[in-house]
Specification:
The protein has 149 residues and is α+β, with helices and mostly antiparallel strands. It has helices at 15-19, 22-26, 35-56, 68-73, 95-108; strands at 61-63, 87-91, 113-119, 125-130, 141-148. A hairpin with a 5-residue loop joins strand 3 (113-119) and strand 4 (125-130). It is globular and about 35 Å long.
Length: 149
């Protein structure tokens, strides 16, 4: 697939930001999704990230799409939805903001998985949210506070 990272997936999100990865740059890995993965990213943006942005203002994606190789390097799960273009990790500025975002998604949006994650090594917190574009397949699996590696 040609590298068209400037593609706008929704009003406020581009393919570039959904594929940006410091680890991919560091390890010289291509992290460009195919057409199906790109469409799944678009649906994630339209159905979860845009409504979240309208409610909370600008949000920063710390991890969106991951190629299989990139996912292995960052220690992602073997079946990670990031590799399918169905998941994003959202930076949260504080525990309070994270909880409000978590509760908003849980109460108002269609989602597959919602995790409030915390890194034991550096104290960072983020929300992991995934969305399956096929209606009726989203599990609404929500874990309020998950301790990551």
């Amino acid at each position: 697939m040609e590298d068209n990272t400037k593609t706008r997936l929704s009003e406020h999100f581009t393919l570039e930001e959904m594929c940006r990865s410091g680890a991919a740059i560091k390890h010289h890995i291509s992290n460009t999704p195919d057409k199906k993965q790109t469409e799944r990213l678009r649906q994630l943006c339209l159905n979860v990230l845009e409504p979240l942005r309208r409610r909370f203002g600008v949000i920063r994606i710390t991890s969106g799409f991951r190629s299989e190789r990139l996912n292995a390097i960052v220690g992602g799960a073997d079946n990670s939805q990031h590799m399918r273009g169905e998941a994003a990790d959202i930076h949260i500025s504080s525990m309070e903001t994270g909880r409000k975002m978590y509760e908003y998604i849980k109460a108002n949006l269609d989602f597959d998985q919602l995790l409030f994650e915390h890194s034991m090594s550096n104290g960072a917190c983020w929300l992991h949210v995934s969305y399956k574009a096929v209606k009726g397949l989203n599990r609404h699996d929500a874990v309020p506070f998950y301790k990551a590696a």
